[in-house]
Amino acid sequence: MIHFDTDYMEGAHPEVMRRLLETNMEQTAGYGNDVYTGQAKELVCQACGKPDAAVYFLVGGTQTNATVIDGLLARHEGVLATETAHINVHEAGAIEASGHKVLVLPSHDGKLDAADVERYIDDFYRDETYAHMVAPGMVYVSHPTELGTLYTLSELEALSRVCRKAHIPLYMDGARLGYGLAAEQADVTLKDIARLCDVFYIGGTKVGALFGEAVVVPDPQQLPHFFSLVKQHGALLAKGRLLGIQFATLFTDGLYERIGGHAVRLALKLKAAFVAKEYRLYMDSPTNQQFVYLPNETIDRLSAYATFELWGPRGETESVVRFVTDWATREEDVDAFIRML
Amino acid sequence: MIHFDTDYMEGAHPEVMRRLLETNMEQTAGYGNDVYTGQAKELVCQACGKPDAAVYFLVGGTQTNATVIDGLLARHEGVLATETAHINVHEAGAIEASGHKVLVLPSHDGKLDAADVERYIDDFYRDETYAHMVAPGMVYVSHPTELGTLYTLSELEALSRVCRKAHIPLYMDGARLGYGLAAEQADVTLKDIARLCDVFYIGGTKVGALFGEAVVVPDPQQLPHFFSLVKQHGALLAKGRLLGIQFATLFTDGLYERIGGHAVRLALKLKAAFVAKEYRLYMDSPTNQQFVYLPNETIDRLSAYATFELWGPRGETESVVRFVTDWATREEDVDAFIRML
Amino acid sequence: MIHFDTDYMEGAHPEVMRRLLETNMEQTAGYGNDVYTGQAKELVCQACGKPDAAVYFLVGGTQTNATVIDGLLARHEGVLATETAHINVHEAGAIEASGHKVLVLPSHDGKLDAADVERYIDDFYRDETYAHMVAPGMVYVSHPTELGTLYTLSELEALSRVCRKAHIPLYMDGARLGYGLAAEQADVTLKDIARLCDVFYIGGTKVGALFGEAVVVPDPQQLPHFFSLVKQHGALLAKGRLLGIQFATLFTDGLYERIGGHAVRLALKLKAAFVAKEYRLYMDSPTNQQFVYLPNETIDRLSAYATFELWGPRGETESVVRFVTDWATREEDVDAFIRML
Amino acid sequence: MIHFDTDYMEGAHPEVMRRLLETNMEQTAGYGNDVYTGQAKELVCQACGKPDAAVYFLVGGTQTNATVIDGLLARHEGVLATETAHINVHEAGAIEASGHKVLVLPSHDGKLDAADVERYIDDFYRDETYAHMVAPGMVYVSHPTELGTLYTLSELEALSRVCRKAHIPLYMDGARLGYGLAAEQADVTLKDIARLCDVFYIGGTKVGALFGEAVVVPDPQQLPHFFSLVKQHGALLAKGRLLGIQFATLFTDGLYERIGGHAVRLALKLKAAFVAKEYRLYMDSPTNQQFVYLPNETIDRLSAYATFELWGPRGETESVVRFVTDWATREEDVDAFIRML
Hints:
The structure is a homotetramer.
Chain A: E1 2-3, H1 14-22, H2 35-48, E2 54-58, H3 61-72, E3 77-82, H4 86-89, H5 94-97, E4 102-105, H6 114-126, E5 135-142, H7 153-166, E6 170-174, H8 177-181, H9 190-196, E7 199-203, E8 213-217, H10 226-232, H11 241-250, H12 255-276, E9 281-283, E10 289-295, H13 296-302, E11 306-307, E12 309-310, E13 318-324, H14 331-340
Parallel strand pairs in A: 1-11, 3-4, 3-5, 5-6, 6-7
Antiparallel strand pairs in A: 2-8, 7-8, 9-10, 10-13, 12-13
Helix pairs in contact in A: 1-11, 2-11, 6-7, 12-14
């Protein structure tokens, strides 16, 4: 059985495991006050071209989103996001649980449009009763999006421009960032992100780590007292060095890029096969998630060999399914699956 | 340099690492829907003598306390705890951040007294204006306490009796439970805890795991919808099997007991050496944390060979220091340190 | 100048003021423990046909909604409402500030459709990952709605049926309930509401009181410990008797009905005049709020004599405007205004 | 029967009622955008000697405290207060419900000591793990205190100095401020308070209004977006002019001072009578609350003529009782009561 369900089905990349094992018996201070976390922060800063950035390591995506958003918003503010955003749908109300409203805008293939954001903000402040409503206090985007799509550089620049004009931070959820950076036609680099976003996180859980997300704050003043907030949100790992070791490994010798590149290459191989077989794409994704319409009977037939996710409800004759690759996906499995298409 | 600072300075027990490595390339469903998590739940239930208990695995202690307490309390209720309780001091306001007050009672060597709890509840409801105040909605104890001390069986029974009479749950923070169960004069077993507490957690982070805490709910109805709350609190690990594998390992072949026993034996060896040298104990602790008064010059002299924590402010001539052992502490290091005393 | 801006532009109905003045020097216990509050509760219960209902008096609508919803929802639950609902738009995030998500459904002339609610709940529990999402924990409707429209008895019965089938409470915001009960074609009585809703409030602020809303809980077990929650939300009035006196007055000798009837009659007179002049209604409202399309030049012309609210943005040639009547609206002013149309 | 239970047993001062009645039929904009609220703000600013202060009118004390504290604190901060503080005991957890911890310091006759505050802050930042704990983010005092006592000018100056040195705001709960300003030996004026506190409120509910508290922010930048927060906390009165009219009346022709002076004079008459009869004072209060030890039989005897509050539990032979006067207390009643002593 071949598994294309998601990108967190295995443990960690073998290189990450090797380093965790090598350092296992060393004794270090807790809560990230160790040499490995220091190294990891430096490597991340370097990769972002922001030597003075603050970097924080948290365990998972939901807690990272909740903690960052809680740190960025004042009490009367909410976060602008698409209606399909992870924070709006799949985080069990974590944003609201810390007191903030998700302000919903339309999704354009999973993406937020700068013009929509600008219009929302303009309309908001044009309404005389705006102080009775939740103020747009920040913008949340994910890159890649939930649908595998990517912002172009000019789209991201437009969002950044709108946010800075409105004096609200732009935050990027990079749970799958490695796959976005590795996409062939991607014109957004990590340095662009660090230049255009006020806060963002580089995902580890879905990109080769056992777990872990690296929050980057190019201008540390944007998130003061964030360490205490991480603790308050229960997101501070006692053995913080586990995060440091993992991210130091991912950001050494281009491992993070290699992981992304491998997964994307195999995903595109799958996509090409779908297209070649004349299956209709649900989304034109350049990253490690591929969405395609398949006849229900094809889905049933393939399910004997492989697992993958139904995206939305099963249709009458055909349905959308999602295929996900990651660092551990084997080319021979992809080839074998393609032959079964 | 020998380190006695705390019990989370290393990675994980080698057996735990071995199992993580062995299973690393297996593909499993996320969020704890995997075979290892299933096994771990069963093993924990067995160890607790509660085959029908609900077991949830979370990543760390602060998030576990915050999530459980949030799940147990109604909005108008607070949690009774000693003034020295971890939730009252060292969790950066995590309990209050989810809306609940910590109601403080005196600490008796780190422990909460059943009579104090009973009196608090009685006085509360005798006050005609009680509906204007935060109702005592649950009791929080840690075992061992922050000071390494243990509840006796009769003390725990008394607390349980008071709680059940008042219809409020008794919750035990077992961050260092392994060391408490392994203490020589301990008369409280895991089965006692499962019988007397309404919710408790078995600590992994400080007892041999890379990270992880196992929340046990003997009567699952006490914490309905807890999975969603775990998610909402950002405490749900994507690769849930990491927790399952670790706890399954800890609860196989008595590893959890062996870890506890090893650390406690070495801690008591240290304690005996302090006593033999006529140093005054600050706390008569039967577990892996030892607290002793040392002359400041002795502290300074020993600091060349070993690290340990100052407990509270440095005194004029002597100070309290804490020594902590764990599964990784080596007997030869303890012996060498004792010779230097 | 005649004012049709809203229904809270004056103080209180003269009868209410008279009673406040008459009782002003009496000394009573605080927080609603006074004879007038007792009387008011009894009168409200009587009017609702629910002698055993619990009745609580709060000061304003936003605080009432926030407190009731906080009391009804578990932490993992959200409240279903239309996208135009007051709690979703105009309460500055009060619901989210107490930790809960507003789950949005389409508005049908301001109303929530029972079939939409049923489908939402069905779809929710059919999704295997539902525990990662905010559970629909209650339904919020307002009657009259923000657009002046009313639920029919069969619509309300359908909503009640869906809620009870799903074991979630149905809550009605009755900020303008008096105007809804007084509408000519209204087939929903106060007793129907008390039979079909699990919690609802009878608005005072907009219906003749200085301020005040009466929360009715037909089965008091639905909102246990609500008094403490009212206090916690800062919604408990020290001089609670002010609320008691006002509601006792409103529910004596049919004053509440008379206030509603007067305002509705004049609103319908306005509506008839609009229709007679062939202005297009934006909404076919049977209550004290009337929404009509007027040419911008007509709006400008009328603004010399009267004030009223632009509903939404000003259009190119015509715009929607809202006219609101209340107990204090004078027939001669309405007649004079109609002559100017 | 004469009532000395508390200072919110009547309606409002007749002058306040007169103005409410006079203006009752006027139509004004809602939410404080009316001419009376504007006048009231100006009068309050004038009385405080701070022409540029921001003034907000809220309905009650608990909501005022919760809203102001929520506005002043960052998420990782708590509020320093005495253990007897109203926010710590009698507000049903309102502070915690909005996410903040009350950090408790000893009470000195109900007052907070500047040296205690300074030591707390110093110790906090000296602790290396301070980022794991709730940071002291503001100081809460009440003046008069719960025990009727007053800060001296030098005590208040010391608190202000400590707060400004630590860059945290000083907030004063002035629920009974009128009685504090009117005390004979009071050396703290309203202008002193406006100079030394960063935010404070002038109580109306207990000092002659039907309800209402005036929050004063000498430097408006200290509480940005406070209007939205007031709305979010459900503390925004629709008919805001009711608050404006009341405070405009209280701050016209010295009414607020007269109310305070009357109540204090009668309270001191009572106090003098207690002393003359050789009853022991529990607290040496210069304001409208008097606390005295009375033999239980005396209490029982007096209860036939008057009501007053038992302060704490009934003792074996004597108990502490509280007598409260206000604007409505009649001198002949006080005299009659004194004769019965």
